[in-house]
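ok trying again, last paste got cut off:
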Amino acid sequence: MLSPFSIKLATMRNEILFISDLHLTIERPEVTRKFIKLLSGRATEAKALYILGDLFDTWIGDDDFSPPIRKIKKHLKALTSQGTAVFYIHGNRDFLIGERFSRETGITLLDEYSVIDLYNTPTLLTHGDLLCTDDLPYQAFRLKSHTSEWQDNVLSKPLIFRLLYARWYRLRSYFHKRKKSQDIMDVNQQTIEQVMAKYQARRLIHGHTHRPAVHDFQLQGAKTQRFVLAEWKKDSASLLSWSKSGYKVESI
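nice, full thing came through this time. structure:
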């Protein structure tokens, strides 16, 4: 006979969780605590956890052990070891996360566009920065920074140099964003429709824009939805959970 705990676990194991844009860094300990609480609690009862980019505010290589990286690795490994599958799509801040991080945590790295069957609906997952096609300077930088030559050059530098560069890049990014309009940094609807048609998806889940919402629209005569995940902050954080009965947006 199954124990009440086993019955509860079997029931909850059909849930799939989605989060993005935690931007973990030593300067944001409250967000780190929220994430660890999720990994050691709520996520242990889920079938899978999808992290859609920007888990870390910067990532300069898998050899970096600056706080809170070591602690995060430990808790991710504990979660995957006890049975919850964890999947990761790179963000615009941590696209240098590599195979070493994957091995040490047990997470699975996904392509920048990945389609899953989410309860009989083909669902496209991505971080979201690829959808912001109106931001031409960023797209040019993204194209360059995702080449093996660029990444090999960066990762070949001493760790201290990469740490200093990451701080400079964050400061530079902050001032560049202040000069851009909000519309330019948002997704392009035409791009969304083209990408969803290409991957034959009827649902899209992404982060990046920090504008949490659910958008309903028509694509090729069919009802289509776009879910935008929220950025995690000191005083607010949420996840998107999905089960056979539908979806919920849960505050953490």
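cool. The two ends are 34 Å apart (CA to CA). The first strand starts at residue 16 and ends at 19.
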